[in-house]
Design brief:
This protein has helices spanning 3-21, 30-38, 94-99, 120-129, 131-157, 160-172, 187-194, 198-210, 226-235; strands spanning 41-45, 50-52, 60-66, 69-74, 80-86, 91-92, 106-109, 113-119, 173-175, 178-179, 182-183, 214-217, 220-223. It starts with a helix and ends with a helix. It is 49% helix and 24% strand. It is an alpha+beta fold. It has two domains: 3-144, Jelly Rolls; 151-235, Arc Repressor Mutant, subunit A (Orthogonal Bundle). The relative contact order is 0.12.
Length: 236
């Protein structure tokens, strides 16, 4: 097998693994996963580039094979509101994949990314033949609505520590009960997510660092005690 063939084989294995590991597609047969993987196009995006902007035509869904993607919406004042920070194995853009309407948010590569792209025209026939996938997508959309509602509640009623702890836990959620111990997010982005200044975020994080709840690192925040953060959220 040539080096090129080995590279293609490895890339196809990555595509299949991401689809099979994501709960949207875990009900598919091996043949159906292979069929969907064969429709995937690989796209490389440099750090800082816009993958799509709010209002752009939506006709595809993306899966992250490498890198980090920030989902947000621009404000009138020119400051972005961060909705989510996604990494390897995460899927985004599924709303536009379903309805074909304009994008509802911006997607920016915060690291060099390798993305797997699934076009709507290739996905809809499989969706029509597999009701379980449609139900899984409904669950995803419901989860997004619940998170948006919860985020609004935190912004209005919760204390800064509770809001910050909840944001860190959400960003650390890797799905399927898995958690990332390191959250690749800046303090300014955290401030945008929970509606607080970077200075306030930094002060709280340093307090938690002294209590061995988190550790501030270059390029992100490492969570030392998940139970500690959960207790802060539950305390309100």
């Amino acid at each position: 097998m040539s080096r090129w063939q080995e590279s293609q084989f490895a890339r196809n294995a990555d595509r299949v693994a991401i689809l099979r590991d994501h709960f949207l597609f875990h009900t598919l047969s091996s043949q159906q996963v292979d069929q969907l993987a064969s429709c995937i196009v690989t796209k490389k995006i440099k750090r800082g580039m816009c993958i799509f902007a709010k209002g752009d035509p939506g006709s595809s869904m993306f899966a992250i094979n490498k890198g980090v993607v920030k989902i947000g919406t621009p404000s009138v004042e020119g400051h972005d509101t961060i909705l989510n920070v996604l990494r390897k194995g995460d899927i985004f853009g599924e709303i536009a994949l379903l309805d074909g309407k304009p994008r509802t948010a911006d997607a920016i590569a915060t690291d060099d990314c390798e993305l797997f792209v699934i076009e709507r025209r290739n996905f809809l026939p499989i969706l029509r033949s597999e009701p379980d996938i449609a139900l899984a997508l409904i669950e995803v959309l419901c989860l997004r609505v619940r998170r948006t509602t919860a985020q609004a509640e935190y912004l209005m009623y919760r204390s800064l520590p509770s809001r910050l702890a909840a944001a860190l836990l959400q960003l650390a959620d890797a799905g399927g009960g898995r958690r990332n111990t390191k959250v690749a997010v800046t303090q300014r982005e955290l401030g945008s997510i929970i509606g607080m200044s970077r200075e306030s975020i930094n002060k709280q994080l340093r307090t938690w660092q002294e209590s061995n709840l988190v550790r501030l690192e270059r390029g992100g925040i490492s969570i030392i005690s998940f139970d500690g953060l959960i207790s802060i959220v539950e305390g309100g």
